[in-house]
Amino acid sequence: MQKNIVILGTQWGDEGKGKIVDYLSQNSSYVVRYHGGHNAGHTLVVENKKIVLHIIPSGLLHPNVIGIISNGVVISISELVKEIEMLKKHNFFIKKRLFISHSASLILPFHITMDIVREKKLGVNSIGTTGRGIGPAYEDKVARRSLRVGDLKDENKLSIKLKNIVDYYNNQLVSIYQHASFNYKIILKDLLKFKNIINDMIVDTTMMLHKAIQNKKSIIFEGAQGSLLDIDHGTYPYVTSSNSTIGGVITGTGVGPKNLDYILGVTKVYSTRVGNGPFPTELFNNIDEYLSKKGNEFGSTTGRKRRTGWLDGVALRYSIQLNSLSALCITKLDVLDNLKEIKICTAYQDINTLEIYTNVSFVNLENIKPIYETYPGWMQNTSGIKKIEDLPKAAKNYIKSIEKIAGIPVDMISTGPDRNDTILVRNLFV
Ligand code: IMP
C-alpha cells in the first residue's frame, strides 16, 4: 500500500533517525532528505558494517530505493562526492539512484570558514555549531545571493555569481576576522570538477516527487537534527538554521501537507544535546557517565561528547504538538538495561513562583526546574529483542508510561543499532 511517511526527531537530534529511515525504506520507493546539510550524522549498521551518512539519504542502502536531496537542503558538493565514494568502497552503488534539486543552495568553503571564525569570536556565548557552514549558507539563501545547484550548469553565470559572493565574504573575513581571503578561481575549478561527477543527478526534485505521488509510490521523508533545534520553535539562538519541524518537509520539498500520511517522531529514551543552550533534564552525575558510555553518546559528525539527561515529557509533548505526530518510535531502549531506576520529567516548576507547567513553549526556558516521576528499571538485557512480548514486564510498563505522557502510541521500538534490532508494534504500511 502506498504511504508517505515523515520521520523526524522530537529532541535535540541524535535520536537514531537514520536507522529507522533505513529500516522503513525497505517498503518504500523514495527517500528524501529535505533540510539541513552535512551537519547531520546518521549512523547505520548493516551486515555488521557501520556506515555514517551526513548528506545522502539513509534509505539508499536498499538497492531499489531512489534517493532525493531536495531544495530545502544546503549541499556541500565536495562532501557529497566524498560520501558517494565512501559508499562505493562499501559496495553500495547509488549514482543512478540519487537525485539533487537544482534549487538547493550550495555550501562553499567560505561558509565553513565564516561559521568557524564567528563561533570563535563569540567565545563563551558561541552556539556550539558543527562548523559545517550551515548558518552562513542559509543566510545567503534568505538574502537571495546563494549559489544554487542549478547554477553549476552555466559556467559563465556561475563564475560571475561566485566572484560576487566571494568578494562579499572576503570583505568580512579580512576586515572583521583578520582571516585570509578566498580566491574564487580556485573554488570555481573545484566546483566544475565536482559538477562533472554529479551533473546527471541535478533535476527538478519537486516535479519528480509530484510524479511519484501521482504514480502512488511510497515516499519516506528523512528529517535531520531534531524539533528542539528548529530555527523558529527551538531554543533560539541555540538552534540550527533550518526548520527541523514538520513545516520543513513542505517548504523543503514542494510536497503539500495532504500528501503526508503518517508522521513518526523518533524519541530516544533519554535526552542528549550536543552544543550549547538550555537542557532542563541535563545530568551531571554517574548516570550521565553511564548513558554516555553505554549509549556511545559522542557526535557522529564532530566526535564531541553529547550532554545527557533524562527523557523530558514536557519537551516531548511540545514536539508532538509542533509536528502533529501520528506515533512515536522509541530508540535505544537497551541503553537503560542496567539502571535500577529510570526517571521521566513530566512537568516544569518555576523556581521563583513555584508554579507547575506541563505544557510550555521552548522559546523561554529560564528559571525552571524539572519535576520527575520514577519508574523501576528491568535490570535485564533487552538488546536485539524483536517482539514486544519478549520485553521484560518493567520495560513494557515503562513504554506504556511514555504513551500515557505523550498521548500518542509507540508504534516502533529500537533495541540495538542493527537494522534488525527493531520491534514493529504496528505495521505502518497498512
Ligand atoms: P549547526 O547546525 O552546525 O549550525 O549547529 C547548530 C546547533 O545544532 C549546534 O548546537 C549543533 O550541535 C546542533 N546540531 C546540528 N546538527 C546536529 C545533529 O545532526 N545532531 C545533533 N545536533 C546537531
Quick structural gist:
The protein is of the alpha/beta class and 430 residues long.
Question: What does the model show?
Answer:
- It comes from Buchnera aphidicola.
- The protein is an alpha/beta fold.
- The chain folds into 3 domains: 158 residues, Adenylosuccinate Synthetase, subunit A, domain 1 (Adenylosuccinate Synthetase, Chain A, domain 1); 94 residues, Orthogonal Bundle (Adenylosuccinate Synthetase, subunit A, domain 2); 158 residues, Adenylosuccinate Synthetase, Chain A, domain 3 (Alpha-Beta Complex).
- It contains 11 helices and 19 strands.
- Strand 3 and strand 4 form a beta hairpin.
- The termini are close together.
- The structure holds inosinic acid.
- Inosinic acid binds next to helix 4.
Helix/strand layout:
Blueprint: E1 5-9, H1 17-24, E2 30-33, E3 42-46, E4 49-53, E5 66-69, E6 74-75, H2 77-89, E7 98-101, E8 105-106, H3 109-122, H4 134-142, H5 155-175, H6 184-198, E9 202-203, H7 205-214, E10 219-222, H8 247-253, E11 262-268, E12 270-273, H9 286-294, E13 307-312, H10 313-323, E14 327-331, E15 341-350, E16 356-357, E17 368-376, H11 393-406, E18 410-414, E19 422-424
Parallel strand pairs: 1-10, 1-11, 2-5, 2-10, 5-7, 6-8, 7-9, 11-14, 13-15, 14-18
Antiparallel strand pairs: 3-4, 12-13, 15-16, 15-17, 18-19
The protein binds inosinic acid (IMP).
